[in-house]
Task: inverse folding
């Protein structure tokens, strides 16, 4: 079952930093044949960085982003090309939508890094850019300018076919809608991404994932035979089956009651603590956000603050300051 580690009684407070926003569509499983991928050199080393060059030129000849350190002392855990400390890095990312004569700036110069093995929640008022942020970070949408890195691979240099390969093999997705195939068993739903990629099932890993999400006795069931919470656990397990470098969750508890939602959040917390999984979650719920290691706030497409070791109260207070509540 889960290692339910809600953990710490977090103290009120937290430091504010600048944060940003994202668009809002959902994704289903990709079904395109693999293609060659591009693998540039190293990636960024800071949680919040400013580019040393203009966003459009934010790639060096070696293929890695160039950064100016925003603190007086360089971080001790400097990244190497072989082992980037950040699972996902966004550098000066902007996203603009044009509808007729109307121009909407969804993201405005967002720079952020997600450390490996961390749980980050993204919050902000409606229209702040949360969904757009998630979609650009996950390779579901290309930014207008700036760069996005998955480990040491620059996603913004890939075409759609190459992005499909990255999403299928290195990224996991969990959405408010479970997106399960009704006619397939739990096992077949879990292993569907592997079948699309032509990868054999690692039975030992499948057993571990199923055990982690508490579905060992449900593998032969159909989705209609499961509760909402169980279906979301299947969706989470499916996101983990390819051993992704990062899991992106868009309102994963939005369709669940509070008790079931808490169980799903316990599971996500456990996956970070026990498996070292990197998770980015977009949510409107301060209680859900309090399960994360860090909460990043967006307003008008820009980073608008950050809390570490958040509590529901400190998150709600920060949202009040942003005019959300």
Result:
């Amino acid at each position: 079952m889960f290692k339910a580690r809600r953990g710490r009684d977090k103290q009120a407070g937290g430091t504010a930093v600048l944060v940003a926003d994202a668009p809002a569509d959902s994704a289903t499983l990709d079904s395109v044949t693999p293609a060659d991928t591009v693998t540039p050199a190293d990636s960024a080393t800071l949680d919040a960085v400013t580019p040393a060059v203009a966003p459009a030129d934010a790639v060096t000849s070696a293929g890695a982003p160039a950064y100016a350190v925003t603190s007086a002392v360089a971080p001790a855990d400097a990244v190497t090309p072989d082992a980037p400390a950040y699972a996902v890095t966004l550098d000066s990312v902007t996203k603009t939508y044009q509808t007729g004569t109307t121009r909407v700036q969804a993201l405005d110069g967002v720079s952020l890094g997600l450390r490996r093995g961390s749980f980050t929640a993204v919050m902000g008022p409606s229209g702040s850019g949360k969904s757009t942020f998630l979609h650009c970070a996950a390779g579901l949408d290309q930014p207008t300018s700036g760069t996005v890195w998955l480990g040491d691979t620059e996603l913004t240099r890939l075409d759609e076919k190459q992005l499909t390969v990255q999403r299928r093999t290195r990224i996991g997705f969990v959405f408010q809608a479970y997106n399960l195939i009704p006619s397939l068993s739990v096992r077949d739903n879990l292993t569907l991404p592997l079948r699309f990629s032509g990868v054999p099932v690692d039975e030992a890993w499948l057993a571990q994932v199923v055990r982690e999400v508490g579905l060992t006795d449900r593998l032969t069931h159909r989705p209609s035979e499961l509760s909402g919470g169980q279906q979301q656990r299947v969706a989470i397990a499916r996101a983990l089956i390819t051993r992704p470098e990062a899991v992106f969750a868009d309102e994963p508890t939005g369709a669940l009651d509070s008790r079931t939602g808490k169980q799903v959040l316990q599971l996500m917390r456990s996956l970070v603590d026990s498996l070292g999984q990197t998770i980015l979650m977009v949510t409107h719920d301060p209680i859900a956000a309090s399960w994360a290691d860090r909460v990043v706030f967006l307003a008008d497409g820009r980073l608008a603050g950050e809390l570490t070791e958040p509590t529901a109260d400190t998150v709600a207070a920060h949202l009040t300051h942003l005019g959300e509540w």
